[in-house]
């Protein structure tokens, strides 16, 4: 009798242990088991590889010399690290001057759009203004009208004002929040300000604050997530923009980095037509691309956490 009870206890303990192992692997719920976590990590690793593979290929190619580029056995890891391609791309792009132009242009546009779109978004979200719905409808229409439709009159006005080959035709519209980017940023601010409690404004009005003081003293400190999202979006958008600089800055000697890549690609094509293709052409293209993307990568590396939090709080994920 004692042996039977002992065997029953051992069987019960074994079943309890097996149930714990099963719950640890599979989980009591579908999203808490080890198998589900392994599946999620596998999906994330595959997705990360898809996005990182071009960057890794670019970095591996730009540090190869001619021998490694001709050797089919050398794929990811070159035998020697060769920086001549980077140096050649650096000199062709006039990198310090081009980097300064790109930084100045991107920062100016980002700051102006961040401020002007915040004012407009607050007005649409909080203020009672005549024909607000009609004005917001016209704002939404800017998503339909492409930039190419209005670029010709803008170039004519810029030429008449003597502003061609300067960055002012790109910066001035940002002050007024014009275009597709401005409309998007206004909507982001409007979405954020609409979610804030009205009691904050009522308390500020009781203390004697006006509209402008409420905006700058109450709402703007609360809008840090939206400000960061709009600033980063505007900065990266302007940094990568090729169309507007090619329209207004095509005749200047030192252009932004987005135009520098195209100029180097054109120069390499002309050399290939005149003297035949070179082995290092692809490596030079990869070097120019690396020099172009390294500042935004560094910016996103240091602001990733706040950027993700800002996207979540501004409602962009909905």
TrEMBL record:
Record-linked InterPro entries: MetI-like, MetI-like_sf
PROSITE patterns named among the record's database cross-references: ABC_TM1
Gene3D superfamilies named among the record's database cross-references: MetI-like
CDD domains assigned: TM_PBP2
Pfam families tied to this protein: BPD_transp_1 (PF00528)
Subcellular location: Cell membrane
Transmembrane stretches, start-end: 34-52, 98-122, 134-155, 167-189, 222-239, 283-303
Domain ABC transmembrane type-1: 99-303
Membrane topology classification: Multi-pass membrane protein
Membrane recorded as keyword: yes
Record key words, sorted: Cell membrane, Membrane, Sugar transport, Transmembrane, Transmembrane helix, Transport
Signal peptide feature range: none
Family stated for the protein in its record: Belongs to the binding-protein-dependent transport system permease family.
Record's protein name: Multiple sugar transport system permease protein
Source organism per UniProt: Paenibacillus aceris
Organism classification: Bacteria, Bacillati, Bacillota, Bacilli, Bacillales
């Amino acid at each position: 009798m004692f042996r039977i009870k002992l065997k029953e206890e051992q069987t019960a303990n074994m079943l309890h242990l097996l149930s714990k192992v099963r719950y640890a692997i599979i989980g009591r719920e579908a999203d808490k088991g080890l198998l589900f976590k392994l599946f999620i990590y596998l999906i994330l690793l595959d997705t990360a590889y898809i996005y990182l593979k071009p960057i890794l290929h670019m970095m591996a190619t730009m540090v190869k010399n001619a021998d490694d580029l001709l050797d089919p056995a050398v794929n990811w890891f070159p035998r020697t690290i060769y920086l001549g391609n980077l140096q050649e791309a650096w000199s062709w792009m006039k990198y310090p001057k081009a980097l300064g132009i790109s930084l100045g242009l991107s920062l100016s546009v980002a700051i102006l759009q961040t401020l002007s779109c915040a004012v407009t978004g607050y007005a649409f979200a909080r203020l009672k203004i005549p024909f607000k719905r009609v004005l917001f409808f016209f704002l939404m229409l800017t998503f339909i009208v492409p930039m190419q439709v209005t670029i010709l009159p803008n170039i004519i006005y810029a030429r008449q004002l003597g502003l061609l080959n300067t960055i002012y035709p790109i910066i001035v519209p940002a002050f007024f929040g014009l275009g597709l980017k401005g409309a998007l940023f206004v909507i982001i601010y409007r979405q954020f300000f609409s979610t804030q409690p009205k009691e904050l404004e009522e308390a500020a009005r009781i203390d004697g604050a006006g509209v402008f003081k409420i905006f700058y003293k109450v709402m703007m400190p609360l809008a840090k997530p939206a400000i960061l999202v709009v600033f980063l979006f505007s900065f990266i958008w302007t940094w990568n923009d090729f169309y507007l600089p090619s329209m207004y800055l095509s005749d200047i000697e030192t252009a932004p980095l987005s135009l520098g890549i195209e100029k180097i690609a054109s120069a390499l094509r002309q050399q290939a037509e005149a003297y035949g293709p070179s082995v290092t052409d692809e490596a030079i293209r990869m070097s120019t691309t690396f020099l172009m993307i390294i500042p935004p990568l560094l910016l996103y590396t240091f602001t990733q956490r706040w950027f993700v939090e800002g996207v979540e709080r501004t409602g962009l994920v909905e």
